Amino acid sequence: MKLNQVKLGNQGLIVPNIGLGCMGMTGFGDADMYGKTDEKEAIATIHRSLELGGNFLDTADLYGPFKNEQLIAKAIEGNRNKYIIATKFGWEIDDNDQVTWKINGTKEYVKKSIERSLKNLKTDYIDLYYMHRLDKNVPVEETVGAMGDLVKEGKIGYIGLSEVSSETVKKAHAVHPISAVQSEFSLFERTVEEKGVIKTLNELGIGFVAYSPLGRGFLSGQIRSIDDLPENDFRRGIPRFQEQYFHKNIELVEAIENLAQEKNITSSQLALAWIISKGILPIPGTKRRKYLEKNIEASKIVLSESDIQKLESIVPLGTDTGAPYDEFSMGLLDY
Predict the structure, then answer these.
(1) SS3 (DSSP) at 247
(2) Whole-angstrom Cα distance, residue 199 to residue 203?
(3) Start and end of every NADP-dependent oxidoreductase domain (predicted)?
(4) Could you say which of 34, 63, 130, 245 is catalytic?
């Protein structure tokens, strides 16, 4: 089973219709992003993804920091031209490899970041380069102008933005064509739809990439209690997994599971097929081959209009499932 190829935006980037989010394959400082990591299995997952046509890998300099890009470099060694690599910059990382928790979108930092990522990925070009978050103290035109210089230099192929408003997208696109915008999007998180960002992207011919398409794991049905999360899992600190939302969210998941069972598929597959049905590219994160294969199977599931209506009636647009980040991180989103 090979994945279908789709256009991501109108600038020429062609990708499979489901990508692989690599963030969870490495820890972050002393914490694991989604439970324990296993480098050997992570690399095997990347290789298996390629065998199935899943050659679109998503990473960022922040993850680790740098460990994730370095892991991908190991995995793709000798096969660089077979993969499409997306990475990101913007969270400031100092010369001691420490995250300062500030956003830096200056021209100088763009240039510094690309050289670091090229080195960590052991490559001389990056297919899709995202501004990870908007620096609210720097005009987006300056940041994207600097990214445009990287395109001219052949260091990146296409430009992306992450977690930005319609207004920011329009300003950026006027400086240099944007190929993709990445934001959190799932049955549990549809802010970009509510705020009209997806409509803007469609009008401008910009692709949309959905990270955390399984609601940070909730929609997989694997989480039934907060104790199902490892002790140092970062999700324990975000509102969606707190007491006031947790049980309500479990009820929603159970209703989604019932619908999935009628179709003889998993709740994860139903959630991913729903995103794909909207012409959106999901990048579910996994570090295990068994989940990767299930996710890729979802790309072949065709939902009827009735299926979509039933699903959206379970979790209507505007349903409050709890914020996906803590208050500090929510304040850095551009909405």
Answers:
(1) helix
(2) 6
(3) 22-314
(4) 63
Nearest to 283 by CA among 4, 63, 19: 19
C-alpha count within 13 angstroms, C-beta hemisphere, residue 52 = 25
Helix (H, G, I), strand (E, B) or coil at 99: strand
4-55 pLDDT, tens digit each: 999 999 999 999 999 999 999 997 765 566 778 899 999 999 999 999 999 9
Q: Give which of 124, 4, 117 is closest to 55, Cα–Cα.
A: 4
pLDDT of residue 32: 60
Q: How far apart are CA 315 and CA 238, in angstroms?
A: 20
Concerning whether 109 is annotated as a catalytic residue, the answer is: no
Give percent of the chain above pLDDT 70: 98
Q: Are strands 99-103 and 91-93 parallel, antiparallel or unpaired?
A: antiparallel
pLDDT digits (tens, 9 = 90+) for 155-214: 999 999 999 999 999 999 999 999 999 999 999 999 999 999 999 999 999 999 999 999
How many of the other CB atoms lie within 10 Å of CB of 97?
11
Q: Which residue has the tokens 């445009």?
A: 148
What's the chain's length in residues?
335
Identify the pLDDT of residue 319.
97
Nearest residue to 171 via CA among 136, 141, 150, 202: 141
Q: Are 145 and 152 in contact (CB under 8 A)?
A: no
Give the residue carrying structure tokens 């052991």. Answer: 122
Phi-psi region of 315 (alpha: psi -120 to 50; beta: other; left: phi over 0): beta
